Amino acid sequence: MKNLKTKYLGFELESPLIVGSCGLCNTIENLKEMERSGAGAIVLKSLFEEQIIEERVKSATQGIYTSFHPEALEYISQMSMNFGPEYYIKLIKDAKNELKIPVIASVNCISKEYWIEFAKKIEKAGADAVELNISHIVHDVETSANDITDDYLSTFRAVKDNIKIPVAVKMGSNYTNIARMVKLIQNYGAKGVVLFNRFYQTDIDTDKLELVPGYIRSSRKDLTETIRWVSIVSSKTDIDIAAGRGVKDGIDAIKLILAGAEAVQVVSALYKNGIGYISKMNREIESWMEEKEFRSIEEFKGKLSQKNIENPQAWERQQYIKALVGIE
């Protein structure tokens, strides 16, 4: 059996496969099955800022919440009752009592003011780390790139400065300079970064003439962008990288590790194939390592990162021209 151990956020994981934050991670039964199937760590289902400030959302009298549709307010109220802050704290405590692998809390927020107190509660409940999912979809034409960066970093800092457990930041890919943003996050004290968040997608129903949800789950075509940026970021920073979005099997996980990721987050593949699919993915990684004669993850991690590829800029330019011109 090959050594699948890797280090992420200061923890030694038995496998590089981490179950990403999703609806599967909201019951102890599922979490225990994930551990049995060989997950290296688990990120709990995200707790949303709206759940914490339910009272304000209900009244719909402050800030951005004045524009909420009544049905949205009712949904958030029900969401908070079924999976609100109290339940979340209990889930962390129960998970730590039942599991041996790291349990990472996930918080999805817009502003920093509500998270300081709750971050402390998450830490007190026993979470091993926090994954901070800062949701910024900016559409104000007066907001500059520097404004976005400053707000993002101040939100992170507000959480980081008030807890001692490691904090990772889950990022989207819509930044002018992703590598610089990751470097700034590292400089501010983040232990890890997750590349990438997949934001809510919007589609249009041409029959009903209305907006509808887009495709929720990731697809394999999303993976190539992640590979590119993991390769670049791992070459320019020292921060731990968990990569995801489009991972469908063990070979996809291997690609991200070759690019420089310490760990790989999996979600959509488990919805499609079941939680037990983690075992199959681990076996695929082991089989590939056997074939290539690698004894450990560390031996091939980052082997194809930007810093380890000869003249990466020229190579990318060459492939770009080849694809567009059609030279075979």
Please characterize this protein's 3D structure:
By secondary structure, the protein is an alpha/beta fold. It has one domain: TIM Barrel. It has 14 helices and 13 strands. It has helices spanning 28-36, 49-52, 54-59, 70-83, 85-98, 115-125, 145-160, 178-187, 223-236, 250-259, 268-273, 277-292, 297-300, 312-325; strands at residues 6-8, 11-13, 17-19, 41-43, 47-48, 103-109, 129-134, 167-171, 192-195, 202-205, 210-213, 240-243, 263-266. The strands form 3 sheets. The protein has an 8-stranded parallel β-barrel, surrounded by 8 helices. Strand 10 and strand 11 (210-213) form a beta hairpin. The chain is globular. It starts with 5 loop residues before the first strand and ends with a helix. Mean pLDDT is 84; it is low at 55-82.
SSE order and pairing:
Layout: E1 6-8, E2 11-13, E3 17-19, H1 28-36, E4 41-43, E5 47-48, H2 49-52, H3 54-59, H4 70-83, H5 85-98, E6 103-109, H6 115-125, E7 129-134, H7 145-160, E8 167-171, H8 178-187, E9 192-195, E10 202-205, E11 210-213, H9 223-236, E12 240-243, H10 250-259, E13 263-266, H11 268-273, H12 277-292, H13 297-300, H14 312-325
Parallel strand pairs: 3-4, 3-13, 4-6, 5-6, 6-7, 7-8, 8-9, 9-12, 12-13
Antiparallel strand pairs: 1-2, 10-11
